[in-house]
Design goal:
This protein is mainly α and 477 residues long. The chain is built from 16 helices and 6 strands. The strands form 2 sheets. The protein has a 3-stranded antiparallel β-sheet with strand order 1-3-2. A 3-stranded antiparallel β-sheet has the order 4-6-5.
Length: 477
Amino acid sequence: MSELLDFILSHEEAFRSRGRLASLYSDFRTQISSNPDGYHANIAAWKKALADAARAGVIPTKGASHDLLNIQIGEELARALQHREYGRPTCLPAVFHEAVSKKEMIPLKDFLSSQTSIYKTSWAPSPWSVVKWGLRLVGVLGQPGFGDKFEVGNFVVLNNVETAAQEILKQMSHRTSSIDLILSRSDFLKRFANVLNHKATLTSNDLEILLTHLSRDRQAISYNSQTIKFKPESEPIPLPITQEDTTIANLRDMLSKINSQIPPLAEKVASADAAAKEAVMSKQITRAKVALRSKKLAESALAQRSDVALKLEGVYAQLQQAADQVEIVEAMKASAAALKGLNRKIGGSEGVSGVLDALRDQMATADEINTIINESGEPVDEAEIDYEFAELKKAEEEKREQEETMKTVARLAELEKTKEKESARENAEREEQEIAKNDGKTEEDLEHASMSFSRLSVQEDPELGEAAEKQNEPIAT
């Protein structure tokens, strides 16, 4: 299994199902009328898989490097996509034709040679490219009446290009100095080599595609064969490359080259010193002298490189300061021109003085008019106004006192009702207590009177008492 096919099967969700995989490798061109949703789903799955594979750097090429923004189609691509069970993808030309028609993939020659932005609605690939790929739509491997090879061609994957460009512009947006916006081609490629994939680097072909896109389609840079300059935020379009820009880019390259030579020299000095000490300990005089000689040479080269690097850094700092001063002066010039234009609009100091004088005259005239109008009207009697105000105030106070009196009367009436209710309740309770008390005394008096009367009756008539006693005696039998 090729590296490309292994990547697609392990990273693309649409290629993990056996049923879907069989459909993707089949001749699904007939579905465009019978099952358009399935047709477009298969086309989209293939386009995504190829774009992701290109970004990962697994698309086969003739050289050792793998382009990340460009796909080369041909026999090698078909062979790399061949599945041991389903064979080669039958509809791969249809995939590229669909991608080209929607500007998702663009023939490399058309992309690099076009003078207008690919984002313009009128832009289209060359007529021959459209016709050629329309004819090749059915020219697939193994089909009767057609060749057994793909038409060789290179296609720019626009989504990958846009992603890389967006990331580059995002990183460069943090640079505020104009001198930091100038890069050489080698410095550009070194800085942004892994902008799409940290494991795969951009190639020289990718660099050309990316520079063309940033310059023509994004209006973000200007460049030539040596230098690349990003557009400052204050400028509407990129400024052309100047000789000063090329000098700054070369200076930065030289400084980077010198700084890269310093660590190996420092390591060589340390290594020679260790070798000399080891030779002295083992009493190898010749070897010790050779190591010391090598150490001295390395130290001399290190000191020279360090001195050159220091001088170059000083020059670079002065260039940066000068560039910043140029920006400041240009800003001041622009401000002076703007201020001059504004002063011209208001007529200078004389114009302002004339305006102020006219304003004062008009204000005085307005005051005179107000005075005349006020004098022509009838005078207002202030005493009458005071009298009416006092009457209104008195009426308001009487109304307020009347409302307060009514509220007080209402509260007193409510309190009186409450007291009457309390008094009635207390009288009722007192009467109940008296009635209960009188009822108890009456019963006792009645009982006492009854007993007294009984005793009195017996004492007054003894015969009645004896008769009563006889009646109570039992009868003898």
